[in-house]
Design brief:
By secondary structure, the chain is an alpha+beta fold. Helices cover 13% and strands 22% of the residues. The chain has a 6-stranded antiparallel beta sheet with strand order 6-3-2-1-7-8, with no helix packed on it.
Length: 216
C-alpha cells in the first residue's frame, strides 16, 4: 500500500451510522453540537445521485423550486455531495445569535440553510428560466452540460478561491518561489547523520573516541 493511501486512511474521520451531514466540516465543534452522542437524527428522504450524474457546482446560477424563497434565483456557494445538497448565497436563511453571554445577548446574523439538489434547478442562460440538464459529449470528446429545452451548453463556472487568487492570472512577486527553484534538486541523500554532515561542511575533525563500557 502506498504512503498516500495510508495517510488518507489515518486522516479519515470515522462517522456513526446515523450521522447527519451539515454545512460544518465533520469533527468540528459546531458539527459535534449538531450530532450529539446517543441521539437519533430524523433521516432525510432524498433519492441518491451518482457522481457521474451530479451537475451542480459552485458558482452556478440556480432557481429555488420550493420553500419560502421559491422562485428566487441565486448563486451556489457550497456543494455537499454526501447530503446531496447545495447552499445558496443569501437565500433560504434563518437568523441566529452568536457570541451570546450572560451580560451580552449576542449578535444576530443570517445563516444559509442547505437545499436538496431536487429543490433547485439550473438556470438556462438563454431565457433565465429553470431547465433540466443532461450530460453530453461534444465532437472534441469534452463532457458538457446541455439544457434539454434550448440545447444550449451550460459551461462549468470558474468559482474563485477563498483568497481571491486566480492561478491563470497570477504574477510571481519578489518573495515568491519560482517553478525552477522549486524543482531544483538540492538534496543529496547519504547515510551520515545531521551532526556528521554539519561537521564535514565546517571542516571539523572529530578526534575523540568513546570509552568502552561493559554491562554485567
Amino acid at each position: 500500500m502506498r504512503l498516500s493511501a495510508l495517510l488518507a486512511l489515518a486522516s479519515k474521520v470515522t462517522l456513526p451510522p446515523n450521522y447527519r451531514y451539515g454545512v460544518n466540516h465533520p469533527g468540528t465543534l459546531a458539527d459535534k453540537r449538531r450530532n450529539l452522542p446517543r441521539t437519533r437524527q430524523r433521516p432525510v428522504a432524498v433519492e441518491p445521485i451518482s457522481d457521474e450524474d451530479w451537475h451542480l457546482f459552485c458558482g452556478d446560477r440556480v432557481e429555488i423550486l420550493e420553500g419560502k424563497d421559491a422562485g428566487k434565483q441565486g448563486k451556489v456557494v457550497e456543494v455537499n455531495r454526501q447530503q446531496y445538497s447545495v447552499v445558496l448565497e443569501g437565500l433560504n436563511t434563518h437568523y441566529r445569535y452568536i457570541g451570546r453571554t450572560k451580560d451580552y445577548r449576542g449578535t444576530l446574523i443570517p445563516s444559509e440553510e442547505p437545499l436538496l439538489y431536487n429543490q433547485v434547478k439550473l438556470v438556462d442562460p438563454v431565457d433565465r428560466k429553470p431547465t433540466e440538464v443532461e450530460w453530453r459529449f461534444t465532437e472534441a470528446g469534452e463532457r458538457v452540460r446541455v439544457s434539454t429545452r434550448s440545447g444550449r451548453i451550460i459551461p462549468k463556472p470558474e468559482f474563485p478561491r477563498a483568497d481571491g487568487i486566480v492561478p491563470e492570472t497570477w504574477i510571481d512577486g519578489p518573495k515568491d518561489t519560482s517553478v525552477e527553484d522549486a524543482l531544483e534538486r538540492t538534496y543529496v541523500p547519504c547515510l551520515k547523520t545531521l551532526e556528521e554532515e554539519v561537521m564535514e561542511a565546517m571542516g571539523i575533525q572529530e578526534t575523540r573516541r568513546h570509552k568502552k563500557v561493559y554491562w554485567y
